[in-house]
Amino acid sequence: MPCLNISTNVSLDGVDTSAILSEATSSVAKIIGKPEAYVMIVLKGSVPIAFGGTEQPAAYGELVSIGGLGGDVNKKLSAAIASILETKLSVPKSRFFLKFYDTKASRFNFFPKRR
């Protein structure tokens, strides 16, 4: 289950966060190759962040996934999420940092829907 946590110093008041969550979910699922039903996105706004010595719009993200990460995938994910943040929140791509964690399934408890 990929989980993307994004924190930004931009206020989310009046922002269509549903569009951000939807686009991020779709991008992560498509690029990693996991079903959207297993992707979680957490978006926090108005978080005090200084980047490069200024408090201009910036964002920090951490993406945890059980497999599916590495080289080209990480580059594609960074570009896709940075594009969403730039379009929806006016966070310049150069003021976004994304950290990746590729982990093992044994470190998580996940209870998918029974079918």
UniProtKB/TrEMBL annotation:
InterPro entries: Macrophage_inhib_fac, Tautomerase/MIF_sf
Ranges in coiled-coil conformation: none
One GO CC term, this protein: extracellular space
GO molecular function annotation: phenylpyruvate tautomerase activity
Stored Gene3D superfamilies: Macrophage Migration Inhibitory Factor
Membership in a protein family: Belongs to the MIF family.
Protein's name in the database: Macrophage migration inhibitory factor
